[in-house]
Each structure stands twice: as structure tokens, then as C-alpha cells.
Give the backbone structure.
Amino acid sequence: MISVSKLLPSDRAVWEELFRGYIDFYRRTEPDEMYERAWREFQADSRMHAFGARLDGRLVGITHFLTHASTSAPDTDVCYLQDLFTASDVRGKGVGRALIEAVTEWARDRGCYRVYWNTHESNATARRLYDKVADHNGFIRYQIELPRPS
């Protein structure tokens, strides 16, 4: 059985292992400080939030998310599911779906207007799940990288 809850301080090492797996999947490299900052934010649970999925008591999946204002729904926030990752040995067992459902429930309980996320067009495995649980509305994302403050 899969259970989803907030990450506990005791989850720190496994969370980082999973998050590093996510960063590696997208062929990125991040400094150690990024992991430290993210963990502090998730433990504060005010601006950024994180859930962990457990299968038979083992932390096997993580998701990170946040809310922000929206011009198309000025009286309510939207929820951005920023990161979602599951251990490779449990893919296809419902862990990703359980994490998405938990974030959706969390957002609904807080009156959010929508939950949305991005994925790379080549991420066929994840897109099979996403196509079942959400609508792809055709938007394409562009971004401009800015230098990180020193």
C-alpha cells in the first residue's frame, strides 16, 4: 500500500537521493547549497511544500510544489507541482499517481483554482501517466536563465 505525507526530518538522506535522481534525469547539475535550501524550505512548509510516498514503509517517491497568484483567477491561487520523482524500481506501481492525487487534494483543500506542471516532451513514461490524470492544453514553455545571485 502507498501512503503519502509530508516529509519528516528523518527522510532527509533518502529525499536527497531521490531529488538528485530527478536532477540527474534532466541532465542538470546543482550545487549542494540548492539541496540544503530546498530542504529548509520544505521543512518550514510555508512557501514551498514537499510530500513523500512510501511503499511498505520505504520512501520511494517525492514531489515538490508551491502556490502562487493567477491573473485568470485573481481571487484564488493556483498550485504548481514543480518536481515529481519515483525510485526506478517502483515505477508503474502507482506512486506517481498517488503523489499527484495528494497534491491535488492539498490544493483543493486550500481553495486553489488549478494544479499544473511541466515535463519534457521526451519523458514518455511520465507522460503516459499525466495523460491519464490531467489535460494537456497545448502550451509550450519558454524560459530565460538568469545568473544566480552570489
